[in-house]
Write a structure and sequence with these properties.
This protein is 16% helix and 30% strand. The longest helix is centred in the first third of the chain and has 16 residues, at 2-17. The strands form 2 sheets. A 5-stranded mixed beta sheet has the order 1-7-6-3-4, with no helix packed on it. It has 145 residues and is an alpha+beta fold.
Length: 145
């Protein structure tokens, strides 16, 4: 009996945790969407939940599968466009200051994480830097074999 109650509680907790629309960390305020290509958005919600996404002049929708996963695609967007994005299901998430432009993924040696403060002519470089549309998404480093 006790085991059944524990198992039922865990199942109930799991369904509550997946009830709201949720997004991965990379889909967030100040993100950049790739211009000129279909844009994939994804997340989780309650199984069967309808999810609608609005950005600029586009509105798309999806339905979460039995595992709670959903995905939707925007048609290619024009570089330079910016605005807020709304993702709605049982809850609503508003992403602020979403920009459309070039998305670059950089990786490599340890110098890829070198801070400007430690570069040659750091003070001058920082003083002259005026790039408000450059956005960074840092992925935490994890040691792996």
């Amino acid at each position: 009996m006790r085991r059944t109650i524990c198992l039922s509680s865990l199942l109930l907790l799991t369904s509550v945790l997946h009830a709201d629309v949720r997004l991965p960390a990379v889909i967030s305020d100040h993100m950049v969407l790739q211009a000129g290509a279909p844009v994939r958005l994804w997340g989780t919600a309650a199984a069967g939940e309808a999810v609608s996404i609005r950005f600029l002049d586009q509105a798309v929708s999806a339905r979460a599968d039995e595992a709670g996963r959903w995905e939707a695609f925007f048609r290619p967007l024009q570089a330079g466009a910016a605005g807020d994005m709304t993702i709605a299901g049982k809850n609503t998430i508003t992403l602020k200051d979403v920009l459309v432009g070039e998305v670059w993924v950089a990786s490599g040696q340890s110098n890829m994480q070198w801070p400007v403060e430690r570069a040659a002519n750091a003070e001058q470089e920082i003083r002259q830097a005026n790039y408000p549309k450059i956005r960074f998404f840092n992925v935490p480093r994890v040691v792996a074999d």
